[in-house]
């Protein structure tokens, strides 16, 4: 996509990445891609805000040089050091010789450590203003949204907030960068929640602090570093992020995520009983086979729903390995304050439920019931599972 004007002398010069299969080397974005949004403000002093991943170097430079001669670049603002936004910086440094890098004090060290860059950098203070001529740029440090060195840049002249990872999402652009021109808002909103639960969720407290800190600003456009720009309704993505961040303490909304795995079908049979009970109890469960679903897709559901159902057999005196992996990822992402139940078949020793309790320790999960049963699901057990599901659904508010 070629550059797009987003405000007075302000341009989006980002790139779509449809080549990277795994974001952060972890999270599948195959088929949908992601964008690295960069911006240029042309003024008495010319500014480039946020960069791109190194594999997109050629595309990035094509975009930037369509708008500005690199000799004329005065400032490079690095809101966030993660290489998806700085990968091209070594090359940029070699060609944009007159540009000064502006970043937080923490990012100064990281620029040296990651790229060997140690001169031509100026650390900006929290709340500091930079006049570029007609534009007044304000820098706000927002530690841990998403790394400790992160800041956002607010253009007080155009009221555009360059929010970097905050308010971003997966999904390369499909022709337009703006919310009001996009006919796929549901897709981008869904992918924003997946991005939030995969990347940002652990730092929900920091997200709330940042939203609070920026609440006094009159923001007309949210210009994040991944995904749609919100100019028609900037409040929408801010409210969504706020709601998602608050799930960290509330445990989420009325809903049930049912994770299951099964080797020979016994636990799967019970899963059907429990799912039917949950449904008859008034909640439609979101069901995931843990052996066949990437955890990236389970995390948004786990993050959003107050209720979590875990169905998995005992495996070598422990938990079915794919379930263990899924729950450990949930723990890493601090999926907290859930109501949960467990069920699963065993052969001789049990062990799965004990492991579930061990993994979820410290996450403030209330495990309401457990049903560890030997071998097959008898009609009596089937009924018990159904009733357990129904009770569980009714306990979720
Ligand atoms: C590789 C393997 C390891 C197992 N380890 C244990 C174990 O340590 N303790 C136990 O009680 N059952 C163990 N079992 C038995 C299963 O828990 C049992 O077959 C159960 O019914 C499987 O449930 P499923 O049909 O849902 O896969 C093991 C089964 C397999 C295939
Ligand atoms: Fe990041
Ligand atoms: Fe990022």
Radius of gyration: 24 Å
Using the alpha-carbon principal axes, give the shape.
elongated
Instruction: Indicate the proportion of strand residues.
Output: 15-25%
**At the fourth CATH level, what is the homologous superfamily of the largest domain?**
Ribonuclease Z/Hydroxyacylglutathione hydrolase-like
Most strands sheet: 7 strands, mixed
In the CATH classification, which architecture of the largest domain applies? Answer: 4-Layer Sandwich
Overall residue-averaged pLDDT value: 98
The number of domains: 2
**How is the largest sheet built, in terms of strand order?**
1-2-7-8-9-10-11
β-strand number:
23
Coarse structural class:
alpha/beta
Explain how this protein is built:
By secondary structure, the chain is α/β, with parallel strands linked by helices. The protein has 2 domains: 4-249, Metallo-beta-lactamase, Chain A (4-Layer Sandwich), CATH 3.60.15.10; 251-395, Rossmann fold. Helices cover 35% and strands 24% of the residues. It has helices at residues 57-67, 83-86, 89-95, 105-115, 185-200, 204-213, 234-250, 266-280, 295-304, 321-332, 352-360, 379-395, and strands at residues 4-7, 10-12, 15-17, 22-23, 27-28, 34-36, 39-41, 47-49, 75-77, 100-103, 121-123, 129-131, 136-141, 151-155, 160-164, 221-224, 253-260, 286-289, 305-311, 314-315, 318-319, 339-346, 366-374. The strands form 6 sheets. A 7-stranded mixed sheet has the order 1-2-7-8-9-10-11. Strands 12-13-14-15-16 form a 5-stranded mixed sheet, with no helix packed on it. The protein has a 5-stranded parallel sheet with strand order 18-17-19-22-23, with helices on both faces. Helix 5 (185-200) packs across helix 9 (295-304) and helix 8 (266-280) crosses helix 12. The longest helix has 17 residues, at 234-250. The radius of gyration is 24 Å and the shape is elongated. The relative contact order is 0.10. The site of one fe (ii) ion (FE2) has 6 residues, from helix 2.
């Amino acid at each position: 996509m070629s550059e797009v004007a987003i405000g007075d002398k302000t341009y989006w010069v980002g790139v779509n990445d449809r080549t990277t299969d795994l974001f952060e080397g972890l999270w599948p974005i195959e088929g949908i891609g992601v964008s690295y949004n960069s911006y240029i403000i042309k003024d008495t002093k010319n500014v480039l805000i946020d960069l791109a991943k190194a594999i997109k170097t050629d595309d990035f430079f094509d975009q930037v040089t369509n708008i500005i001669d690199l000799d004329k670049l005065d400032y490079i603002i690095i809101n966030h050091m993660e290489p998806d936004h700085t990968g091209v910086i070594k090359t940029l440094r070699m060609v944009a010789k007159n540009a000064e890098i502006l970043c937080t004090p923490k990012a100064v060290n990281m620029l040296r450590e990651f790229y060997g860059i140690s001169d031509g950098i100026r650390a900006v203070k929290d709340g500091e203003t930079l006049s570029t001529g007609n534009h007044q740029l304000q820098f706000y440090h927002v530690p841990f949204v998403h790394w400790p060195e992160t800041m956002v840049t607010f253009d007080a002249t155009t009221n555009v907030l360059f929010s970097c990872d905050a308010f971003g999402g997966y999904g390369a652009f499909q022709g337009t960068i703006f919310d009001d021109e996009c006919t796929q808002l549901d897709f981008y909103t869904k992918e924003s929640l997946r991005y939030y639960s995969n990347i940002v969720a652990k730092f929900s407290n920091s997200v709330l602090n940042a939203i609070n800190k920026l609440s006094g600003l009159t923001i007309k456009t949210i210009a994040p570093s991944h995904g749609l720009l919100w100019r028609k309704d900037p409040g929408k993505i801010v409210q969504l992020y706020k709601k998602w961040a608050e799930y960290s303490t509330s445990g989420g909304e009325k809903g049930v995520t049912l994770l299951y795995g099964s080797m020979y079908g016994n636990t799967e049979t019970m899963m059907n009983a429990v799912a039917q009970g949950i449904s008859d109890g008034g909640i439609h469960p979101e069901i995931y086979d843990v052996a066949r679903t990437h955890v990236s897709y389970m995390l948004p559901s786990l993050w959003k729903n107050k209720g979590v159902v875990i169905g998995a057999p005992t495996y070598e005196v422990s938990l079915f390995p794919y379930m263990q992996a899924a729950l450990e990822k949930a723990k890493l992402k601090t999926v907290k304050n859930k109501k949960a139940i467990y069920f699963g078949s065993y052969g001789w020793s049990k062990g799965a439920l004990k492991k579930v309790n061990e993994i979820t320790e410290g996450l403030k999960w209330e495990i309401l019931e457990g049903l560890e049963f030997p071998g097959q699901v008898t009609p009596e057990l089937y009924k018990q599972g159904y009733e357990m599901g129904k009770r569980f659904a009714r306990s979720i508010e």
